[in-house]
Design goal:
mainly beta, 5-stranded antiparallel sheet, 12 strands, 0% helix, binds thymidine-5'-diphosphate
């Protein structure tokens, strides 16, 4: 099942700085952003790819089903990363206006890595 991790964040009177370094359970090969969302996204799991979701601005919800457990995570802070493992079938919705979801992925994009069928 997916889990969230708290990203190291440095605050001072100039603002905040959050770092992703040696804290993800994979090396990052690909980064993409999801924004201006108007309907449900995702709806798949992967054969190999592990991902980390961070909502940089605003908030969104990520529903996850790993075949045994279902969970909904609210991502509402740029200091929180949701680790989505290959077996975690997931959808993303309820994006607030202006929200930006950044995704770090362990693999290069490969359509054949996608499994669209949800668990029974
Ligand atoms: P899609 O997987 O449908 O997005 P989501 O999981 O958010 O519903 O991807 C949308 C389009 O973008 C689709 O044509 C594939 C393309 N795409 C890439 O070319 N590279 C990528 O890394 C990703 C994630 C998608």
């Amino acid at each position: 099942m997916s889990n969230t991790i708290d990203l190291p964040t440095y605050s001072d009177n100039r603002g905040k700085l959050t770092v992703i370094e040696n804290c993800l359970p994979f090396d990052v090969k690909r980064i993409y952003f999801i924004y201006e969302v108007s309907s449900l996204r995702g709806g798949h799991r992967h054969k190999k790819t592990t991902q980390a979701f961070v909502c940089l601005n605003g908030s969104c919800e990520v529903f996850v089903n790993d075949g045994e457990t279902k969970n909904t995570f609210t991502l509402d802070s740029p200091t929180k990363a949701l680790i989505v493992k290959p077996q975690d079938w997931h959808t993303m919705d309820n994006f607030t206006k202006g929200s930006i979801l950044v995704v770090f992925a362990s693999e290069y994009y490969d359509e054949s890595d996608y499994i669209h069928e949800n668990y029974k």
